[in-house]
Amino acid sequence: KQEVTQIPAALSVPEGENLVLNCSFTDSAIYNLQWFRQDPGKGLTSLLLIQSSQREQTSGRLNASLDKSSGRSTLYIAASQPGDSATYLCAVDAGNQFYFGTGTSLTVIP
Amino acid sequence: SAVISQKPSRDICQRGTSLTIQCQVDSQVTMMFWYRQQPGQSLTLIATANQGSEATYESGFVIDKFPISRPNLTFSTLTVSNMSPEDSSIYLCSVGTGSYGYTFGSGTRLTVV
């Protein structure tokens, strides 16, 4: 069974710092990996989708990488802002099911 | 990608009652997914809803507790029945959008008192 783990569970950084969130998964047989943002009590907003054949995707200050063979993905956030404070979830599409990570709670301090 | 309208956004309900959550998609989709997110936890899939057939439930979830309707390709409802405080969670619907991945509704924050 696929297991998805995110490290760290919580992260607090001063505004302006660059940061990296980590996601690991146990089974490399995936179709794609998706990063989401979740604000407290709200639904999920898709940030980036990386297909299994891709190595990375970029959107604005966000860059996500995928190393399928090692079962790892990272989400890089450049020049963090207080508005980036949220929980970030990664999820892998294994075809038959979508598996979510445990999330990283990010706080960006002004 | 698809846009999902989910409602209600939140509700406070008495134990023993039921709540129906609705999701409307702006395009036709084959499968819709319902998730639960308990406080401090990640998302857990409740069931997959296909139009014209009964929903497929994951282990630990049963139809009597979480009946699902899927009357057409753009709409689905999830009912949380005979609620208890343990049902207090965020409930989300989701659809797969092919190359755009998965899109989620805005969530329903349920508190059972």
Gist of the model:
Chain A has strands spanning 4-7, 10-14, 19-25, 32-38, 44-51, 56-59, 62-67, 72-77, 86-93, 98-100, 104-109.
Topology:
The complex is a heterodimer of chains A (110) and B (113).
Chain A: E1 4-7, E2 10-14, E3 19-25, E4 32-38, E5 44-51, E6 56-59, E7 62-67, E8 72-77, E9 86-93, E10 98-100, E11 104-109
Parallel strand pairs in A: 2-11
Antiparallel strand pairs in A: 1-3, 3-8, 4-5, 4-9, 6-7, 7-8, 9-10, 9-11
Chain B: E1 4-7, E2 10-13, E3 19-25, E4 31-37, E5 43-50, E6 56-57, E7 68-72, E8 75-80, E9 89-96, E10 102-104, E11 108-112
Parallel strand pairs in B: 2-11
Antiparallel strand pairs in B: 1-3, 3-8, 4-5, 4-9, 5-6, 7-8, 9-10, 9-11
Describe what this molecule looks like in 3D.
The complex is a heterodimer of chains A (about 110) and B (about 110). In chain A, strand 9 (about 85-95) and strand 10 (about 100) form a beta hairpin. In chain A, about 0% of the residues lie in helices and about 60% in strands. Chain A is globular, with a radius of gyration of 13 Å. The mean pLDDT of chain A is about 95. Chain A has strands at about 5, 10-15, 20-25, 30-40, 45-50, 55-60, 60-65, 70-75, 85-95, 100, 105-110. Chain A has no helices and 11 strands. Chain A has about 110 residues and is mainly beta. In chain A, the strands form 2 sheets. In chain A, strands 2, 4, 5, 9, 10 and 11 form a 6-stranded mixed sheet that branches. Chain B is globular. Helices cover about 0% and strands about 50% of the residues of chain B. Chain B has no helices and 11 strands. Chain B has about 110 residues and is an all-beta fold. Chain B has strands spanning about 5, 10-15, 20-25, 30-35, 45-50, 55, 70, 75-80, 90-95, 100-105, 110. In chain B, the strands form 2 sheets. In chain B, strands 2, 4, 5, 6, 9, 10 and 11 form a 7-stranded mixed sheet that branches. Chain B has a 4-stranded antiparallel sheet with strand order 1-3-8-7, with no helix packed on it. In chain B, strand 4 and strand 5 (about 45-50) form a beta hairpin. The chains are: A mainly beta (about 110), B mainly beta (about 110). At the A-B interface, strand 4, strand 5 and strand 9 of A face strand 9 and strand 10 of B.
